[in-house]
Amino acid sequence: MENNNLFSIAGKVAVITGAGGVLGGSIARSFIAQGAKVAALDIRKENLDALMKELSGKGGEIIGIAGNVLDIDSLKKVADEILAKWGQIDILLNIAGGNMPGATLTESQTIFDMKIEDWDKVTNLNLNGTVFPSLVFGEVMARQKSGSIVNVSSMAAYSAITRVAGYSVAKTGVSNFTQWMAMEMAMKFGDKVRVNAIAPGFFIGDQNRAVLINPDGSLTERSKKVLAKTPMGRFGDITELNGAVQFLCSEAASFITGVVLPVDGGFSSFSGV
Ligand SMILES: NC(=O)c1ccc[n+]([C@@H]2O[C@H](COP(=O)([O-])OP(=O)(O)OC[C@H]3O[C@@H](n4cnc5c(N)ncnc54)[C@H](O)[C@@H]3O)[C@@H](O)[C@H]2O)c1
After folding, report:
1. How is the chain split into domains, by residue range?
2. Measuring CA to CA, which of 217, 241, 247, 255 is 20 to 30 A from 198?
3. Residue 262 in contact with residue 269, Cβ under 8 Å?
4. Looking at the domain covering 2-201+239-262, what would its CATH class be?
């Protein structure tokens, strides 16, 4: 990809929320290697410190900012800080999010056992945690008349996945909001402000390891069902999301807005039969 300018993100200023996590960290590494300027934002400062140490001097520039995607006032301060340092914001990657143990029903529970408090937490983080940064950093892009936002939807937004009701509803909201914001930005602020999403398939991460892999390392029944419905017959490697995100942020995607791009080994296009 290095020699093809169409896909270049070199010199672009990118805000990555949830950069202290597995996916955000992986994309931050990839963006730095491609010469982007990365503002890594996470509520867990200690994770950012490790990332900063690893990535400083590795290509582009990186700053770590402790911040909460659910706090609009603090996000505005973050935007001011980035603008004071780099003068523009070209890319927003809304990566912060994920399922929460309390919001996952056990095998023996039904929806009526679900705690409303956990429903509120998981829907708030996964929906508003994408909407609020899009409003704050998107407003900067609207003023600039250029910018690219990439959200993270999920396979749970295509058809029902057992046990994760709140997460699924919120991610469906993310897909719909992606379309809505794409329309709004293009119609009111021009064709250079784009909003898209990726929909990752199944990747083994901290949030889902326990439901996919048994303590002895073997696959759970749930895992076997996932792989049976994945034509490629394997889980994804988290780095396999980097190219899709970079593509959506680059000039190569200049006429693409409002799409949700599955990166799923075929899971969403296969009936299972
Ligand atoms: N790992 C997968 O298989 C998978 C699959 C589909 C979608 N996703 C999605 O990808 C995204 C990232 O997942 P991950 O596996 O990297 O999760 P992760 O838990 O490793 O990372 C999430 C990061 O977000 C941060 N965060 C949480 N609340 C925050 C807040 N209020 N403000 C700022 N930061 C906050 C956390 O501190 C953490 O560092 C999520 O949206 C998740 O739903 C992951």
Report:
1. 2-201+239-262, 206-235
2. 217
3. yes
4. alpha beta
